[in-house]
Structure formats: structure tokens, C-alpha cells
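Give me the fold.
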Amino acid sequence: MNQDIQFFLITLIFLEIFEVYWQQGKSFRNYISNLFFFYKKGVMIFILLHPTLYFIMFAQISFQNYSFLASLLVIIKILDIGLKISLMDRIYNKKDLGSFEALIKADYPLSLGIKSAGLIIYPTIFFFAFS
């Protein structure tokens, strides 16, 4: 692995730590409330608080790597943001939550593994996509 990719990987890890930090919550309901705090300030602010999406796109362009894994990483990040926005819209506009209703009403605590899953998954996929 060359030094540029190592630098990008380390930067991605730090950006993921930033995302884990601002998206914190002790329970799933608390997690969604914290996300909604930024979402109600503006959708663009909420989307801009996901710098790993833009960083991965930048890495794709920089290394001209449009492989399956690199593209999958971008798609997963977009779906992640879209799911969060959709879920917040359903909760705060009193729409049907479907299968998420039981999870929100039960107010289950979030484990450290769930909170930091992106910190493990995204850099791992990035490593395999760009090395």
C-alpha cells in the first residue's frame, strides 16, 4: 500500500471518529433525537456533517478508482444518510414507522459495538477497495 492511500485511510478513520462523536446517544431514541437536533437546523447542515461521504468520493476521483467496492462504499454512505433522514421524517411527522416502531418505543440502549460499527466497516471496505 502506498503512502497516499495510507494517509487517506488514516484521514477516513479520523472523519469516522468525528461522525461517531456527533451522532452519539445512549439509546436508539436518544440517538435519533441527537440527529434531529442537527436536521432541524437544515438538511444541508445535516448532510454536511457526514464528511466521510465527500472524502470517499474525493478518494475515488483522486485515485481514479471506480471499482465495485469503492462505488459500494459511496452507495452505502448515501443509503445511510437517506435512512436517517427518512426515519427522522417519519418520527417527527407522526407517520407509520413500520418495523422501527418497536425499537423506538422500547428505547433499547445502544452498545459501543453498534455505535462504532461504521468505524470498523467503512475503513475496512476502503482498505480493500483502494489497496
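The radius of gyration is 16 Å.
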